[in-house]
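Homework help board

Subject: predicted structure for assignment chain

Our instructor gave us this sequence and asked us to write out the predicted structure in token form, then describe one feature. I got the tokens but I'm not sure how to describe them. Can anyone check?
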Amino acid sequence: MGTYSKIKGLSDVDVSGKTILLRVDFNSPIDPQAGLILDDKRFREHLYTIKALEKAKTVIITHQSRPGKKDFTSLVSHAHRLSELLGKQVKFVDDIFGSCAQDAVRSAKTGDVIMLENVRFNAEENLKLSGEDAAKTVLIKNLARMGDIFVNDAFGTAHRSQPTIVGLPEVLPAIAGLLMER
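My token output:
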């Protein structure tokens, strides 16, 4: 008989003062020309996890659509909608792991929420890789430098073998978010 290890969740880890890389799935129906989000259901599903991280710096990693699709766009509108739902500013950074993103994370305070640009703007995120191979990508090496703990709350994309899903747990302590636990 095999042994099963319990996947750790937010109640198993003290996130106070840490920088959390939070992978969510905000991929939503949008009006690509106006940039308006037509349905914020996925945002609302992740609110419990984001609020549970209030004693940490939260860095949101997410995507909208995929290359070649009409709704493959920046996450400016996503950050604005999340700000409305949270009742506090979510800082949007039009960078994924470069100096702008690094500076924003470094200067953030406990309780701040930062949303990085659409992670699928980075070509490596569109590859299907093993966790071991994903951990070797420039994307994952650079994202990992910005965080202390990886929280996967992206239930809708958890089956994908993309670097932010399978690579970050290889290089950072990883736990499930509240949506993922549910």
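Reply (TA_rk): Your tokens look well-formed. For the description, you could write something like this. The domain at 18-181 is CATH 3.40.50.1260 (Rossmann fold). That's the kind of observation they're looking for.
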